[in-house]
Write the structure tokens for this entry.
Amino acid sequence: MMDGQEPEKRENPYKKQNPYKKQPKEEQATVGKTETFATRNVKLITFLVCLAVFLVFLGPLSVWRISEMVNAKKEAEAIEAQMPIGALLAVADKGAAATWSDFRKYEKSESINDKDGYVGWTLQIRNEPFYVIVGGYGTKTAPQTIRVYSLITGESVDLFRDDVHAFVEQNQINEK
């Protein structure tokens, strides 16, 4: 400390530097180096490449699985829209008082409307080997014919004249 000079700073030779401590980076000159989108966004590009590979290999499988689930749901809804056997027997109990509205809410597998005004509906019975054909001239009047057919024997009965309950019991599949 002579003559107003600062003392020399010496490093302590016994003090070790922490190798885990972040050292300040030396600034490098960027002369001649150009920074591009790719060099700035390496992580984003890597993510997008991985996503593309995933979609190429597993995308078709995912689309197939989703379409399979949609089709299964449509099939289940179609089965639910079919007429249950209990509803058919309830209409059979009505007999001649049966109307078009008894059948209107169920899905028709076939529907006919000809130019003369004849209307015909074919309805499948849910989970049973039967179908019903309802026919008549216009839906504003009562149906003229309602026939219940067995898919097993091919026989049919007229809902207005025959015993539908006995026909159903005779032609049901025994699940025992």
